[in-house]
Amino acid sequence: MIQHHKLDVKAVERLAEKIKPEEDYLFFTYVSMRRNEASFFGQFVNERLTGVLAYTDQLPFPAFAFYGLDYKELQLDLFVSYVRKLLNLHEGIVGGTILSDVDLALFQAAKLTVNEPTAFITMKHEDDQKLLKGDLVERITETEWEACARFLAKSEMNYFSERELQQYPFYAIREGEHYAAVGGFHFYNEMLVELGNIVTEPSFRGKGYAKAITSKLTHVGKAYSPNVYLSVFAQNTIAIHIYKQLGFKVVSNRWITDFSLAAYSIVK
């Protein structure tokens, strides 16, 4: 018998004990830093948990994290459709997530993916000696949040939330009165820090601003947690080269993909 229901706090806490950041990085962030803002749903086959979908509405798109436990028994198409119904999302909704090779194959076999997946890597900082020093970078103040958000949006950087801008330190390099480069954090916790939203205005690229911003963010992050990560599209070889020069090492390879939540017709 297949059942679906929302997981309670204790169930999520038990699940969190099993998750290691470098093995299931995205899901780890949901059961740790995003736990209070996320909803967790489980599929049970004969009372055994087969998989979990976590959801947050704090990003500009419907964002999910998946964790599989029993791939043989899991009915993924049925699961995601029930989650859509429980969240009261419309039938045409498309969710975004990051998947391992195994999980991507599972989503593709269920005919849930709606576009070509994009290779995505996570890196961890390991060598402080490679970071740059200097005073080129300055912190963005509270009065500049809206301007920073506009700069990120103009650069098609949509993987940030208003909470990140307001609660975590963001930094910028200016050319005159305008931003030339901006960077901040997705997570800022003693458990781990994740750099994010690093972008340079195209007309100012090639001046070393990305290195300066990334170094500053890493220095700030290391003062808060020894575990500093960042993620980047695998096709962005220039950025990856910069990050490696600054002491970051690849720890996981994943795929970003969009998927349909209406693959199964639910019988009422």
TrEMBL record:
Transmembrane segments: none annotated. Signal peptide: none annotated. This is GNAT family N-acetyltransferase. InterPro entries: Acyl_CoA_acyltransferase (IPR016181), GNAT_dom (IPR000182). Pfam families: Acetyltransf_1. Residues 135-268 form the N-acetyltransferase domain.
